[in-house]
C-alpha cells in the first residue's frame, strides 16, 4: 500500500512535467504545424542560464524568472530567424531544421558551460512529507512542481479563453488566411506562440533539473516522453497533452516501480502503439477530416 | 559539339534500366576498389562506417522519400539486424554472408509488424510511434540480458579475410588485406548490391505506385492501389535494408550494444536522407558521407585553430547542426536538389543564349 502511494505520487509529479512539456509541443503544433524537436535543447539551454546565475550568487527565484524570460526570447528569436522560412513548406524540412537546432544547442551548451554533470539546486526541501510513521515520496518540491504546472495551465486557459490576444492566437492557428483578412497580424501571433511554448518548455526544464544533475543531454529523455504524451493525447488538444502527460508519468512510474526500470521505454512504446491502433490521431482527436 | 558527344555516349549505354544500373554499379565497384586500396586503415574504417550508414539510409529513402512515411525508428531496426548477426556469428557455424541474409530476413519480418502498425498513422503520429520504437527496442536487449548481453552488449566476432583472398590481393596490389579494408569491402559490396536492387525497384511498377501513394493517397486509392499493403511493403523493404546495415555495423564495430542504437542514430539517418536530397539514392549516399566525414574534419580544423580537444569535439556537432539548418533554409530540396536547380538554371541560360542567337540570325522566333 505504502509503495503504491509512493509510486503514484512520484508518477504524478513526473507526469506533471511531461504534461508541461507536451503542452509546449502542442502549442507550437497548433500554431505552426511543426513538431519542435529542439524544445528540450532550448529548455536545457535556459536551465544552464539559470544555473550560471545561481552560481554567481543570485537567488533561485531571480534565476527562475530569468530562465523563463530567456525561454520567451529564445522561442521568439528561433521562430523569427529559422522557423519562419520553412513554415508552410514540406513537413520534413521543418523536422530537419528543428533536429539541427537540437544538435546545435546541445553543442553550444557543451562549449559554453562544459559537458560535465552539475547539480542544480531545488528551492524547496527534497525529503518526503511524514504521514504518521511513514515517509511518503512526496516532497515539498514535488508540490511546487505540480503547483507551478497547474498555475501555468490555468494561465494558458485564461489567456486563450478570456483575452483578446488569446483569441487572435486561436484565430491564426485556426485559419491563417481568414485571420489575416480580419486584421490579425498572424506572423506576430506565431512568434508569440513559439515564445510562450518555449517559456513553458523552460519551466519543464527547470522543474526536471531541480535537485538533480544537469548536463547538455539531460532533456533527451523528457523530449521522448513529452512527445509520446502529446501524441497520446492528440496533438491538437492542449487538454489531451495534459492527460497524456499524466498518463505517461503514472504508467512509467508503475512499470518502473513494479516491473523493473529497464522496461520503461518498452512500456511507453506499448502504450503508444495500443492507443494509436485504436485512435490513430490520439485520445482526444475530433473526427478526422481528410482533404482531397 | 559536346551535345553530340554526350548523345553518342548515351547510344552506347545499355537501353534497359537493369543494364544501365548494372553498369553504374560495376563502375562504382571499380571506384571503391581504387579508393580503398589507395587509403590507409583509418580511412578504410571510415568508409566501412559510411557503408552501413548508407545501406540503412538508402532503405529509409525508399520509405520516406518514395512512399512519404517518416520514420524516426530505423536505428531500432538496425539493432535487430545487428543482434541477429551477432547471435548467429557467435555460434561459429554460420558463414557471415548467411548471417547477413538472415539479419535482413529477421528485420524484414520485424518490418512487417512495425509497418502494419504504422500503415494507419500519418505525419507526427507516425513520427511519435517510431520515436518510441527507437527508444523501446534497445530496452528489450537490456531486459533479456541473458540472450542479448544487457548493457554490455554482444561481442561480435567479425569475419577475418580468408588466406586465399589475402594472397590474391597481395599478388595484385602488393598490399596487405587488412581487417579494416576487408570489412570496408564487405560493407561497400553489400551497399552496391542494395543500391542495384533498390535502383531497379524504384524504377519498377512498385516505385511508381509508392510515388503515387506519396503524392496523392486518394487518387492512388481510386486508381486501384491498396494503400495499406503498399505501405507495409515499403516498410518491409526499408527494414530489410536497415537490417543489412545493422549486420555490417555489428561486424565493423565488433559489438552489438544498446548504446550503439540510441535515438541519435535514428535521427542521424533521417537527417542524412533529407539533407542529401529526399527521394534520391544518390542523395542518401551524399548525406551518409556528410554524416561520417564532416565531424572528424571539423574537429581536425578546430584543433588546428588552437581549440582544446574537448572544445574541438563539441565543435563537430555544432557545425553539423548548423549545416542541417542552413541547407534546409538555403536549399529546401537538399544538396542534390540545389545541384539540380543550378544545372537547370545553367542549361536554361545556355539555351536562352542560343535562342537569342537563332532569332538574331534567321528570325525564327515563335
TrEMBL record, chain A:
It is a multi-pass membrane protein. The chain crosses the membrane at residues 12-29, 36-54, 60-78, 90-114, 134-160, 190-211, 217-235, 242-260, 266-284. Keywords: Amino-acid transport, Cell membrane, Membrane, Transmembrane, Transmembrane helix, Transport. GO terms for molecular function: transmembrane transporter activity. The keyword Membrane applies. One of its GO terms (biological process) is amino acid transport. InterPro entries: ABC_transp_permease, BCAA_transport_permease. It is found in: Cell membrane. GO terms for cellular component: plasma membrane. It holds the Pfam family BPD_transp_2. Belongs to the binding-protein-dependent transport system permease family. LivHM subfamily. This is Amino acid/amide ABC transporter membrane protein 1 (HAAT family). It comes from Prauserella shujinwangii. The lineage of its organism: Bacteria, Bacillati, Actinomycetota, Actinomycetes, Pseudonocardiales.
Automatic annotation (TrEMBL), chain B:
The keyword Iron does not apply. GO terms for molecular function: branched-chain amino acid transmembrane transporter activity. GO terms for cellular component: plasma membrane. Pfam families: BPD_transp_2. CDD domains: TM_PBP1_LivM_like. The keyword Repeat does not apply. It is found in: Cell membrane. It is a multi-pass membrane protein. The chain crosses the membrane at residues 22-40, 52-72, 92-118, 125-144, 182-201, 232-253, 259-278, 285-303, 315-339. Keywords: Cell membrane, Membrane, Transmembrane, Transmembrane helix. InterPro entries: ABC_transp_permease, LivM-like. This is Branched-chain amino acid transport system permease protein. The lineage of its organism: Bacteria, Bacillati, Actinomycetota, Actinomycetes, Pseudonocardiales.
Amino acid at each position: 500500500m505504502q509503495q503504491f502511494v509512493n509510486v503514484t505520487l512520484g508518477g504524478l509529479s513526473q507526469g506533471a512535467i511531461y504534461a508541461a512539456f507536451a503542452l509546449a509541443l502542442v502549442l507550437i503544433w497548433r500554431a505552426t504545424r511543426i513538431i519542435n524537436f529542439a524544445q528540450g535543447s532550448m529548455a536545457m539551454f535556459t536551465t544552464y542560464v539559470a544555473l550560471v546565475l545561481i552560481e554567481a550568487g543570485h537567488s533561485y527565484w531571480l534565476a527562475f524568472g530569468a530562465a523563463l524570460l530567456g525561454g520567451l526570447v529564445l522561442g521568439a528569436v528561433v521562430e523569427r530567424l529559422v522557423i519562419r522560412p520553412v513554415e508552410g513548406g514540406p513537413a520534413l524540412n521543418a523536422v530537419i531544421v528543428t533536429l539541427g537546432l537540437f544538435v546545435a544547442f546541445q553543442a553550444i551548451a557543451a562549449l559554453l558551460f562544459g559537458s560535465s554533470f552539475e547539480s542544480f539546486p531545488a528551492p524547496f526541501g527534497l525529503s518526503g512529507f511524514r504521514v504518521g510513521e511513514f515517509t511518503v515520496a512526496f516532497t515539498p518540491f514535488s508540490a511546487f512542481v505540480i503547483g507551478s504546472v497547474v498555475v501555468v495551465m490555468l494561465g494558458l486557459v485564461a489567456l486563450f479563453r478570456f483575452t483578446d490576444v488569446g483569441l487572435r492566437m486561436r484565430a491564426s492557428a485556426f485559419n491563417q488566411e481568414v485571420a489575416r483578412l480580419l486584421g490579425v497580424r498572424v506572423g506576430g501571433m506565431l512568434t508569440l506562440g513559439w515564445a510562450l511554448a518555449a517559456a513553458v518548455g523552460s519551466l519543464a526544464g527547470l522543474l526536471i533539473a531541480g535537485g538533480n544533475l544537469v548536463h547538455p543531454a539531460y532533456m533527451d529523455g523528457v523530449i521522448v516522453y513529452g512527445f509520446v504524451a502529446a501524441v497520446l493525447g492528440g496533438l491538437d488538444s492542449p487538454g489531451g497533452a495534459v492527460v497524456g502527460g499524466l498518463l505517461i508519468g503514472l504508467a512509467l512510474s508503475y512499470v518502473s516501480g513494479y516491473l523493473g526500470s529497464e522496461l520503461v521505454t518498452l512500456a511507453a512504446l506499448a502504450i503508444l502503439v495500443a492507443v494509436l491502433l485504436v485512435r490513430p490521431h490520439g485520445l482526444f482527436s475530433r473526427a478526422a477530416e481528410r482533404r482531397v | 559539339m559536346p551535345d553530340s558527344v554526350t548523345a553518342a555516349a548515351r547510344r552506347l549505354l545499355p537501353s534497359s534500366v537493369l543494364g544501365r544500373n548494372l553498369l553504374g554499379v560495376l563502375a562504382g565497384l571499380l571506384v571503391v576498389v581504387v579508393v580503398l586500396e589507395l587509403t590507409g586503415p583509418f580511412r578504410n574504417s571510415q568508409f566501412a562506417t559510411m557503408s552501413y550508414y548508407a545501406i540503412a539510409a538508402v532503405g529509409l529513402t525508399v520509405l520516406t522519400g518514395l512512399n512519404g512515411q517518416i520514420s524516426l525508428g530505423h536505428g531500432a531496426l538496425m539493432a535487430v539486424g545487428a543482434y541477429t548477426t551477432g547471435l548467429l556469428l557467435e555460434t561459429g557455424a554460420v558463414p557471415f554472408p548467411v548471417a547477413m541474409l538472415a539479419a535482413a530476413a529477421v528485420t524484414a519480418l520485424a518490418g512487417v509488424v512495425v509497418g502494419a502498425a504504422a500503415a494507419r498513422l500519418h505525419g507526427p503520429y507516425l513520427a511519435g510511434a517510431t520515436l518510441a520504437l527507437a527508444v523501446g527496442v534497445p530496452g528489450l536487449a537490456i531486459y533479456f540480458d541473458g540472450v542479448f548481453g544487457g548493457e554490455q552488449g554482444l561481442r561480435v566476432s567479425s569475419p577475418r579475410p580468408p588466406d586465399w583472398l589475402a594472397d590474391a590481393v597481395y599478388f595484385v596490389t602488393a598490399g596487405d588485406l587488412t581487417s579494416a579494408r576487408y570489412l570496408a569491402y564487405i560493407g561497400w559490396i553489400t551497399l552496391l548490391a542494395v543500391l542495384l536492387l533498390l535502383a531497379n525497384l524504384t524504377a519498377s511498377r512498385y516505385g511508381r505506385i509508392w510515388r503515387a501513394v506519396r503524392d496523392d493517397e486518394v487518387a492512388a486509392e481510386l486508381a486501384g492501389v491498396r494503400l495499406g499493403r503498399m505501405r507495409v511493403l515499403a516498410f518491409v523493404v526499408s527494414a530489410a535494408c536497415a537490417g543489412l546495415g545493422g549486420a555490417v555495423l555489428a561486424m565493423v564495430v565488433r559489438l552489438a550494444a544498446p548504446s550503439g542504437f540510441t535515438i541519435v542514430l535514428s535521427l542521424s539517418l533521417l537527417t542524412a536522407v533529407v539533407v542529401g536530397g529526399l527521394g534520391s539514392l544518390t542523395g542518401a549516399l551524399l548525406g551518409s558521407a556528410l554524416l561520417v566525414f564532416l565531424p572528424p574534419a571539423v574537429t581536425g580544423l578546430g584543433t588546428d585553430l588552437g581549440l582544446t580537444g574537448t572544445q574541438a569535439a563539441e565543435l563537430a556537432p555544432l557545425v553539423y547542426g548548423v549545416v542541417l539548418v542552413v541547407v534546409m533554409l538555403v536549399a529546401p530540396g537538399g544538396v542534390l536538389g540545389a545541384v539540380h536547380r543550378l544545372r537547370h538554371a545553367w542549361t536554361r541560360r545556355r539555351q536562352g543564349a542560343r535562342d537569342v542567337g537563332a532569332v538574331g540570325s534567321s528570325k525564327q522566333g515563335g
